[in-house]
Write a structure and sequence with these properties.
Layout (H helix, E strand, L loop, with lengths): L2 H13 L2 H13 L10 E5 L5 H9 L6 E5 L3 H14 L4 E5 L13 E7 L10 H12 E10 L12 H5 L10
Parallel strand pairs: 1-2, 1-4, 2-3, 4-5
């Protein structure tokens, strides 16, 4: 991924109040209804800096003792490593700094797989196989997969659809 992508993504998130709306949605809509106390191990695919994944884990009350992630961007991977030490103290954590297609995979299945804003990078014709691979090779029996993916419709507000389905509205910009 190019540096331009991350610059544009950060600008998009800063333009509106994406972080605030996401946090509020996880805290008030998802967290009270999704309790993951049995979850001990987690694998996050393309978490960037990890702020959404860590927030999700905390609000869903997961008891993470092992956190694995694959993140191709060096600066994001470094930031995530530092965040994990503070946010999940005592948890064994490892961030693999490579592209998913170059990665050999997990040695042991995990209880929770997080895919937040990552399916955009999997070609449409390969998504079903990718999800099957995650389920069959990386996920422990009885485990969970959490996916956040906004639609790519031609509607200029399609990125808002996820939050609207959860009863929240993401404004187009700060005023």
């Amino acid at each position: 991924m190019s540096e331009n992508y991350f610059t544009m993504l950060e600008a998009f998130r800063n333009y509106g109040n994406f972080d605030e709306v996401f946090g509020d949605t996880v805290e008030n809509k998802v967290g009270p209804n999704v309790k993951l106390g049995s979850v001990r191990s987690c694998f996050s695919i393309g978490p960037g800096k990890g702020q959404y994944e860590i927030g999700f884990i905390k609000h869903c009350e997961a008891n993470i003792s092992k956190f694995l992630a694959i993140e191709p961007d060096h600066a994001s991977a470094e930031h995530l490593r530092k965040s994990l030490v503070v946010s999940l103290p005592g948890a064994e954590s490892q961030v693999f700094e490579t592209k998913l297609e170059n990665w050999k995979g997990l040695s042991d299945p995990v209880d929770l797989i997080l895919m937040f804003h990552v399916l955009y990078f999997v070609p449409d014709g390969e998504r079903l196989d990718f999800l099957k691979k995650a389920r069959d090779k990386w996920l422990a029996s009885g485990g969970y997969v959490a996916v956040m993916h906004a639609s790519r419709m031609n509607d200029p507000e399609s990125a808002n659809m996820l939050f609207e389905r959860l009863g929240r509205r993401l404004p187009c910009g700060k005023t």
